[in-house]
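Subject: for your reference before the review

Hello V.,

The reviewers asked for a structural picture of the protein, and I figured it would be easier to keep everything in one thread rather than splitting it across files. Below is the amino acid sequence we used in the manuscript, unchanged from the supplementary table.
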Amino acid sequence: MLCAVTFIFQQAILCFKAYKEMTQRNGLFNFAVFLTILFSVFVLSGCVSLSDAFVSKNKVVLAEQNPSQHFEQEVMIVRISQVLLVGKMSNEERASLHFERGVLYDSLGLWALARYDFTQALALQPKMAAVYNYLGLYLLLDEDYDGALEAFNTVFSLDPDYEYTFLNRALNFYYVERYNLAEQDFLAFYQRNKSDPYRVLWLYLNELKFKPAEAQKNLAQRAIGLSNDYWGTYIVQYYLGKLSVQELQNKAQHFAAQTSTQYAEILTETYFYLAKQKLNMGQTDEAETLFKLSIANQVYNFVEYRFAVFELAKLGQQAQTE
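And here is what came back from the structure prediction:
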C-alpha cells in the first residue's frame, strides 16, 4: 500500500531539495531540522506501510533525541578553538588539534567544517594517514571516485595496515561496480576481525553483485564466528532467515534502552541494512523510506548514516533521469 505515500514522498522530496539547496550554500546540511518535519508528515499521515515491524501504519520506530546529547563534543570544540586562536605551538601540535576538532565536527554531522579542519591539518602535517582517510571518504560521498581512490591509496602508502581504509576503498570500488576489487578489500577488512558482523554484511552485499550463487552460503559460513556483543550479528541472522523483522525489533528493544544513544545506533544500522535488502529486491520506494529512517536517528559518523545519505542521493538522481 503506497496510497498517499507517493504524494507525501513527492512533497517531502521537494522539501528536501529546497532545504538542501538553501543550506548547502554554506556547505552544511543539518538533517535534524529537516527530518523532524519529514517524519512528522509520515507519522501524522498514517500512510507509511512497509509490512515491517519497525514501520507500520500507525507507528515509526525512532530513537528519542536528547538536546544535550552532543554537549561534550560542543564543549571540546570550543576549547580546541580557543587554544588554536591564542596558543603558541608547533605545526605538529596545531595539526593534531585541527584533526581532533575535525573528528568532533564529523561526529556532529558538520562535514564541511570537518573537511576544513582536515585540510588545515594536512597543510601543517602532510603525512597524516587518518586525514587522508577522512578526506577520501568525503570525496567518495561526493561521487569523486577517482579522488577518493587516490586518497585511500595515499593512506596505504603512509600506513599499509590502516584498517578502516580497507573498508572505505572497498566501498569506493563497490559503488563504481568494480565488485572483484571491492571483494579483495572487503576480505582484507574481514580477515582483521572475523567476529565483526558488519564486515560480514558488506562482504555479503558485495557478493550479491559479484557472485550471487555463493553469497548466501558464504554468509552462513561466516556467521558461525560472529560475536553476540555486536548488534549486527542479529541483522546477519535476519538476512539468513533465522529472525523475522518483528523478532529483530524485539531483540533491539532488549539490546539497548530505548532512550539511549546505543538504541539510535542500532536503529541507524537496522534501517540501513533493511533498506539495502529492499533495494536489492527492486523495492525502491520502500528502500527510500528506510534509508530516510536510518538518517533520522542522527548518528552522523556511522558508515550506515553516511551511506544512507549517499544512497538517497543516488535514488534521487535515478528518479530525475527516468
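For the response letter, the relevant points are probably these. Confidence is low (pLDDT under 50) at residues 1-51. Residues 67-156 form a domain with the Serine Threonine Protein Phosphatase 5, Tetratricopeptide repeat fold (CATH 1.25.40.10).

Happy to draft the paragraph if you're swamped.

O.
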